[in-house]
Amino acid sequence: MGFNRLLTRSILSLLLLPAGLFAAGLEAERESAGALFDGSLPAAPAGDLAAGSPKDASADFLRQMKEVLSSGAWSGSTPQMRPFLFKNSKEGWSAQAQSVGLEGFLWTKKELEGKYGETPFAGQLDDYFSYLDSLLKPVSWTSDLRRALSDLRASAMTGPEKNARLNLILENYVAGLHSNMERYDAAAWAKKARIYELFPRAYNLAGSRGGNFFREFRASDFDRIKKMGFDAVWPMGILPIGVRGQTGTGGGSPYSISDHATVNPDLGTEEDFKKFVRLAHGAGLRVIVDFVVNHTSLDSRLLAENPDYFVSYRYAGACAPDYFDVSWSGSRYCVHHGGFEYGGGVSSWIDTAQVNYSNRALRDRMTAIVKGWVTKFDVDGFRVDMAYLALNNVFSRTWQKSMPSDEFYRQLISTVKAAKPSAAFMAEAYAYQEDLGACGFDTIYSKHEDARPEGQTGWYNASESGDASAMQSSINRNAFLAWQAGGAGSVMFAGNHDEPAPERVYGKRLPAALALTMLYPGSVMVYSGAEIGYDAYIPTEHKPLPFSAPCEINWDGGDPWVKKVYQDVFALAERTRSELGDYDIEPLWPAPGQGWAGYILKSKDKPGLRRAVIGNVTWTSTRADLPQAGFSGSLAPGEYRFLDLK
Fold it and tell me: What is the 3-state secondary structure (H, E, C) of 252-291?
């Protein structure tokens, strides 16, 4: 009680000081977080301490908030801390915090104490304080919090009293930082974006209007997308495609790029694309475009500018395997095909050329190109293809190169966001998610993520497998990612242009898989044609819309059953968002022997309003008991229930 009285008095004194004693704008916002850790319920900062607007916030302040909340400090490509390891002294197991920062520490601490009580972890109380001080120390404006934690650590309170007070302090401090993140993170929209991916070459506008795609795309076409519940469009494959080495008969791979800086003339002019973006914005839709970071085509503009931008060497003889020859400025170069580390070697895409991220000039060139998409075309975000391949650790190991000290993505993302703070970056990544989040990515694919102790937490791979345990681990992980504000959110999907058609993957399990995906409060994605069950699969390419053969969606075709599944789930998702407003989710854990997966939806706008969704994404029927919803019965494969909670 003595500590609480002292802390409250100090905070009240702080709030009563003349506003002029504090630095205006940014510094005042830093103080506002400190004013929220007095043990009371989270509240809005006092008026004097909430001055400022997004334009006053520096990129450094936003980066530091993300560091405190999520990533912790990094030195170049190396994290300076690892997530806290909670140890259950009674049962002898450990659990890793969801992230290094305050959010991951607090979320995991409360989750474990809620399930097992605080006693099994009581022996770590002193470790909590040491860990938190190390986390906060690099960021000077956390000094008030560090001082409060130091005072609590030294107080005469009992261990349980200290632990309870610690939870309150962290809850309120995190609430203060969340308030600041809402105000200053202009790209936070991406963490809740509902993305409709479309393939212009195959989209087949109604009536095949006879003109180029961007020129012919109308406001009514965007209205159709908006009415399905989407708020962002990703026109995939809009960059010019190389001719040299082109594969297949469908027009080439959209990821063999001849010019990263402009649109494919087959789809329209730059002015046509600008109109496309304006119409999308007018319909309330944001526009995301690809940034193919790892490679170009064999005849790209970048390669013509300078082969030293690529993994290459000068040589007069025959090129080694996986290289192709290029003549430039009187010299002959051997350039490696674009590739990735696989099976102890490098696997190559034979229609691509490998960009060299050990070259600083190339980094600057790519940064300028990507920035041009926001300054010239006003796009809203970038889906970065195979993003983890350009990380220093990955690139250095794959290509045996000495890398610059800092990550390319820090340069890229900070430069683009300086030009347009709301510009968002979505990573296609199947490894190194922690590194990409620390570099500033806003969202990351939830497909394959197995680096955490609990195993597979990527939603696509977990749900595809039909493993109920993996699905619940993924839901638990994604519940945290949807709640947190400091790190990268996740993008959940049941299919995209790289995966087989959802009905081919899930079969009769599709309704449950789609419901659990589309009700997720974070970002979700659907590929055009999926909503009618259109699948143009060919034996040599499992994509629903193949790249290697001519293909157009037949909007009068598809699968009626699949179409009905999508209509029902889209309608449910729309009703749910209308009823609950903004919401978080909490995992539901099936009883032993039960194979369903699900979660509780908890309205943030209407406290106390809760719903639950459970579904069977396994291949066999399962018992499902959810007493708090009054439900007990059997779920067939693919069956799901949306339930009121008592």
Answer: CCCCCECCCCCCCCCCCCHHHHHHHHHHHHHCCCEEEEEE
